[in-house]
Amino acid sequence: MPEQGQSFKDLEPVAYRIFPLREAIAVGVVVFLAIFLTTYFIYARAIEAQKSEIRQSLLRTASVVRTLVDPEQHRQFTKPEDEFTTAYQQALAPLIAAKKADPQITYLYTAVMGKDGKVYFIYDVTPTPTDPNVEDTSVALMEEYTEALQNPQIMEALQEQTTVVSNDFYFDQWCQDGCISGYVPLLDAENQFYGVLGLDIQSPDYFARLQPIRRATARAMVTGFFVAFITGSMIWFLRRFILIVNQRRFALYERAVRRSIDAQPTPRAQTLTQANGKTGV
Asked: Per the confidence metrics, is the pTM higher than 0.85?
C-alpha cells in the first residue's frame, strides 16, 4: 500500500508562470496599438476625403458663380478707369453677394490673358479698405498678375481653357499663408473662351474645415488609451487573483504534506510498538 505522503503527489498543484504586471502592460499596449492604428487609418482616409471635398466644393461654387458673369459686360472693361463706372459696380454686385454667402472664400475674381501673354485681373470683389492701418489686398481693374508664373494653376486654366484646382498651397503677395484655388473657364453664348473665374481659400480657413476630423481623432485616441488602461487593469486584477489562488493552493498542499509526514510513525516508534505487542505490555 503506498505511503500516505505519496498519495499527495497526485494532488500537487501545477506551477504556472504568472506575471500580472508584465501581462497587463503587454495586453494594454497591444489593445492601444490596435485602436491607434485603426483610428489613424480612418483619420487618414477621412482627411483625404475631406480635402477632396473642399476642392470639389470650390469648383462647384465657382461653376455656379460664373453664371453671374455677363460675357459682354466683362469684355467691355479694358481700361483701369472703367473700375469707377456705374456699369462696373453693377457687374460686380452679384459676385459680391455670392462671396458674402460663403464667408470662407477669401478671394473671388476673374482674370484674362492679354495678347502679350500676361495675366490681368478684371473683377475683384475684395473692397479697398478705408482704414490706412488695414492691409489692402484688393486688385485694380487690368492690374497685372506679376506672379502668375509662380501660380501654375491659373496659367494652366488660361492656356488650356479648362477647369483646374490646386493640389497644394501656393503663395503670392495676397496668399502669404498659402491658398488653395479653383479656376473655371468663362464661356460666352457661342462657347467662346474669354477668361477664368477664380476662388481662393486661405490655409487657416482650409485647416478649419479639417479641424472637426482632427478633434474627433484626438478624442478617439484618448478614449482608446482609457480602454487600453481599463483592459490592462482588468488583466492585472484577474491574473493577480489567479496568482494568489495558486500560491494558496501550494501553501495548502505543503501544509497537508507536512501534516501527513508528521502523522507517520518513525521506524523506532514502529519497533517499540511491535516489541510491546510481543511481550504483551
From this structure: no
